[in-house]
Amino acid sequence: MSSDAPARRPAGTADPRGAAVALGTGRARLARGTVAGTAGLALSLGWHATAGGGVPGIGALVLAACVAAAVCTWWAARRRGPVALLALTGSLQVGLHVLFELLAGHHGSAALLPGPGMTAAHVLAAAGVAWFLARGEDALWDVCAALTHAWAPAPAAVSPLARPAVPPLPPLRIDPAGVVLARSLPRRGPPALSMA
Predict the structure, then answer these.
(1) How much is the pLDDT for 185?
(2) Is residue 12, in this structure, part of any structural domain at all?
(3) Alpha-carbon distances of 46 from 56, 122, 163, 195, rounded to whole Å
(4) Is there a domain that residue 122 lies in?
(5) How far apart are the C-alpha atoms of 99 and 57, rounded to whole Å?
(6) How many domains does the chain contain in total?
(7) Does 103 reside within a domain?
(8) Which ranges of the chain have pLDDT less than 70?
(9) I want to staple 86 with a disulfide (CB 3.0 to 4.6 A). Which of 25, 28, 120, 130 is the partner?
(10) How far apart are CA 78 and CA 24, in angstroms?
(11) What is the Cα–Cα distance from 154 to 5, expressed in whole angstroms?
């Protein structure tokens, strides 16, 4: 199963084509990507600090927010399933951890490799963001589907007096010779017994 496959939808809540196109382009795509990047950054920073990592300054956080929002906006081109969202948030956590460590002044491969506590913190952050995004995506797509159905043009009303056009029947052709011959054809099978 592909990680980019859309999540299964309950019966009756199919995604209309119009909502699918609208949410993957323009401002809606930018908004979805910004929300995903901000949520990823906030949980990553919180869990990173809880696990004892360094917290960068405000300028570095703005840079991290822009990078996270750009990556997530690129991913928001279409609807993603839970596995793809977990892959996105996991890779975002790895990138943000490295960025936090570099911006906090920790250089070298030993400083960039997280310990077990830091790994657990970023795994929790990735799972939390993936869950948040999956629930948010479901709600957003449901609202768009409802609005699309609500604003869809009503079908043209059909008058009860109007009848569909019925093609005329072909003229009836009677062949007198065929009628006479049909009566003169012998029946097949044994003769019927008569009691006279």
Answers:
(1) 59
(2) no
(3) 12, 10, 69, 109
(4) yes
(5) 12
(6) 1
(7) yes
(8) 1-22, 106-111, 152-164, 175-187, 189, 191-196
(9) 130
(10) 5
(11) 32
